[in-house]
Amino acid sequence: MDSLEQIKEHYKSLENRVRLFIMVHSDIEYVQGSSECVEGGAFTWATLSPDSQLIQSELYHEYMSLIKRARKHLELAGSSYLETFDESCAEVKAYILQENLLWGSSLQDVFIGVKKELDLQRGLIAQPILI
After folding, report:
1. How far from the centroid of its chain's Cα atoms is residue 86's Cα?
2. Backbone phi, psi, residue 43, to 5°
3. Inter-CA distances, 106 with 15, 23, 82, 85, 88, Å
4. Are 23 and 108 in contact, with CB atoms under 8 Å apart?
5. What is the pTM of this model?
6. CA angle at 61 for the pair 43 and 17, rounded to the nearest 5°
7. pLDDT tens track of the chain, all 131 residues?
8. Which helix (H) or strand (E) holds 93?
């Protein structure tokens, strides 16, 4: 089994790669007419270039491997937060796969949302019983 420190280090590395993927390789587009329904409007992901799609695929597979290891750690620790962990992971997967609508109008706003979820996951594995 991976040590907790290895998992946390992998999370930090992944966070940096996700930040680069969102800030450098991604873009968002305003959904026409959405400001009539939602204050500030809604945004969707722009189509990725073929090179960016490759980065996305690698990042997704790396994340899936990481959360499998992290979840195993939580299970062995007897954490009562597996459902919270799984919900947070689903959020991050949607960001990486770019399957979600966005409410932030900048890529920085988008990354802040992803970072909050990754921080939550790191917190859950660091203190699986006390949170």
Report:
1. 12
2. -130, 155
3. 18, 9, 31, 26, 21
4. yes
5. 0.90
6. 60
7. 578 899 999 999 999 999 999 999 999 999 988 877 877 789 999 999 999 999 999 999 999 999 999 999 999 999 999 999 999 999 999 999 999 999 888 999 999 999 999 999 999 998 755 44
8. helix 82-97
